[in-house]
Specification:
It contains one helix and four strands, in the order ββββα. By secondary structure, it is of the alpha+beta class. It has a domain of about 35 residues. It holds the Pfam family Yqai. Keywords: Plasmid. InterPro entries: Uncharacterised_Yqai, YqaI_dom_sf.
């Protein structure tokens, strides 16, 4: 019996592996955030990847990077 391809998942009776992949969302800097990523959450609910913390402070908030001296 031949199945109607319109009622099968991808036409070949094989499930699509991307069907259940997590969908990322964007942080303040525009980077993709996945469920296993380390993030910082501000009091007002904004999300920032931990790896973007220093670039965010330098570029958007005007902090200066210096090494060992004031």
């Amino acid at each position: 019996m031949i199945e109607n391809p319109m009622v099968l998942h991808n036409g070949y009776d094989i499930r699509d592996p991307q069907e259940y992949e997590p969908i990322p969302f964007k942080d303040i800097c525009g980077s993709d955030v996945f469920p296993d990523d380390d993030v910082l959450i501000s009091p007002d609910g904004e999300v920032l990847l931990r790896e973007n913390a220093v670039p965010y402070l330098v570029t958007l908030l005007g902090f200066q990077e210096r090494r060992g001296e004031l």
